[in-house]
Amino acid sequence: MAYSLASERRHITLEISDKLLCLFSADVTIEDDKYVVEVPRREIETGSVEPGETYRVALIADDSESSSAESSSKSESSGTSTSSEPQPPVEEGEIRYVEVEDIGKQGDGIARVERGYVIIVPDAEIGERVKVEITEVKSNFAVGEIIEEEF
Fold first, then answer.
1. Tens-place pLDDT, residues 35-89
2. Burial, 91: exposed, middle or buried (Cβ in 10 Å; 0-12, 13-18, 19+)?
3. Element spanning 74, H or E
4. pTM attached to this predicted model
5. Which domains does the chain have, with CATH numbers?
């Protein structure tokens, strides 16, 4: 399955296994005599990952050294600090192609994108692949309106 990850400056297409449970960014830290990659709490809470289980981990290099330097110099010059809480991986008005994986308690379709972030898709059915426009973004979910079915 191919997914497109877009940023302001580049467009990356990755082949991602259907077995992918979650996708998130994390720093590698040193603890005693080992290196640690922390799994965000929301991945455990959403049921993507279970504590005590063994998983395969793929590491993808962050090619954004220049953009990281830019953003840190911007935050230093503006006097603001960047939050340790990751920002939602979608923006209002963004167009996404998603597959509905589940149905929520109120009957809306549920799709997941990067880091297990949820996109609620009203009037969608499980297994449906749709093109949506993001109409609302919250810290832990977004709402996407269907603009094209079965891409």
1. 888 888 877 877 778 888 888 887 777 655 544 444 444 444 444 445 556 789 9
2. exposed
3. helix 65-78
4. 0.47
5. 2-78 (no CATH), 95-149 (2.40.50.140)
